[in-house]
Amino acid sequence: MTTFWSFAAYKSERTDLVDFATPIAIAKQALDALQSLRKIEKALDQATLKAELAEVTSKMADVRMALLEAREEAGAKDAEIARLLKEFEARADLVTVGQFKYYPAASDRSKPFGFPICPRCEQIEGRIVLLREADLRHATCPHCKTTYRAWYYNEPAGSPA
Ligand SMILES: [Zn+2]
Fold first, then answer.
1. Domain end among 68, 90, 112
2. Ligand 1 centroid vs 144 CA: distance in angstroms?
């Protein structure tokens, strides 16, 4: 009696979904195999029984592995959702000066503060990346490495900071 199935065959084609179908499918087959083993257990010799149990045990290890992968994928997606929500909120507050968008100053949220965000990363990837000082007149994006002629804004004069 050679039951069995291939772990790879159950791997979902969809890469955009967290794959719970794989561990569920393997677990179901492992359970089915255990149930049929229980029915015929007395008819099997010890060696065959051991071999079949080893096979089921190995499939349960596959289930565990697939669940760990699914948990990792779900965690990565949660982190991405959190990042997008945070950026979505931040976007509403950005202050536009010329071609650049800045985070608002703490003391006056209509005024820009610090270096601007990278226009390229925002437009192309929808990602908010703060530029970093390159030299006196330039700032560079740490993500896409584009350098801009950009200005740094201090807190507006008269602010407590
Ligand atoms: Zn960039």
1. 90
2. 4
Q: How confident is the model at residue 82 (pLDDT cuts 50, 70, 90)?
A: very high
pLDDT of 8:
45
Q: Are residues 86 and 11 in the same domain?
A: yes
Which residue would you say has higher pLDDT here, 13 or 56? 56
Q: What percentage of the chain reaches a pLDDT higher than 90?
A: 43
User: For residue 121, how far is its CA from the centre of ligand 1 (angstroms)?
Assistant: 4
Asked, for residue 154, whether it belongs to a domain, the answer is no
Separation of CA 130 and ligand 1 centre (Å): 8
| Three-state SS annotation for 45-110 | CHHHHHHHHHHHHHHHHHHHHHHHHHHHHHHHHHHHHHHHHHHHHHHHHCEEECCEEEEECCCCCC
Q: Is 40 a domain residue? A: yes
Give the structural domain span for 86.
7-90
